Amino acid sequence: MSGWPNLSELVVGAAVDAPVGLVGAPLAAGSVTPGRCDLAPALLRATLRRIGRYDIETRRELSTRITDRGDVDLAGVSIEEAIGPISEAVSASTAAHQLTLLVGGHNAVTRPGVRGLGLPFDRIGLITLDAHFDMRDLDEGLSNGNPVRALIADGLPGSNIAQIGLASFANSRSMHEDAIAAGNFVVTISEVRRDGIAQTVERAIDRLAHCGSIVIDCDIDVIDRSQFPAAPGARPGGMAVQDFFAAVRRLASDPRVRLIDLTEWDPPLDPTDLSALTAARWVAECLAGFEMRAA
Hints:
The protein is an alpha/beta fold. 34% of the residues lie in helices and 18% in strands. It contains 9 helices and 11 strands. It has helices spanning 40-47, 79-96, 110-115, 147-154, 173-182, 189-195, 197-207, 241-252, 274-292; strands at residues 11-12, 20-25, 54-55, 60-61, 66-71, 99-104, 124-129, 161-166, 185-188, 213-219, 257-263. It has a 9-stranded parallel sheet with strand order 1-5-2-6-11-10-7-8-9, sandwiched between helices. Strands 3-4 form a two-stranded antiparallel sheet. Helix 1 packs across helix 9 (274-292), helix 6 crosses helix 7 and helix 8 (241-252) runs parallel beside helix 9.
């Protein structure tokens, strides 16, 4: 009987040197939609055993090891208080590994993730796969609805930001206008369907050609809600899950990509295993893309 090589076999302890690092950031406080995104990192790890390593399309078996660096201790902390610990964990991981996977938690983990690279903002690019601009006002404090605006306020140039998958009836006119005024590269979900995910991602990569390092923010609510029901902000008409997987794989293949996050997964919203399996498949696509760097 043939064996079942699976992703969990690639996960090793912190004492083992590996090309990829995994950091959990179970942040739930301060969410626009209260939930339990803090449960996501643990469920992701538990689901990896259900994802195989063999890609029948390419006839390649994943072999890249992942150092599990554990979860950042965020119990009872606010978004503001979480910035330092998350940034420090990302900094340590990106110093030790070629690629770091940051598993939220909600979307507020993206900003400290970017800051954790420890580079001047003009050298960092950000590509978001997200139904939302994340450009809510900062007047009422930080939330999972304004990490992009907060990063722009930090000094990240809009010309270094590409946003893919933006949805109608999920954003405001002012957010859209502010994103355009900042110089963000904005691609709606209908444009993704019109042009295809491959061409869309290449345009985003080309747009960030001047950036030395890139962060990918995978807000899971970009996926159509029927295919990922455990994302509070997901809506009907979102990105097809196969396009999401293709985008993640291509983006992970770019050697400038140092950090990829997965955010806005609220496990209790999906009593089935669909969302968990999709999130765990995200890890496989990240690894498949990473291994393309050396192909």
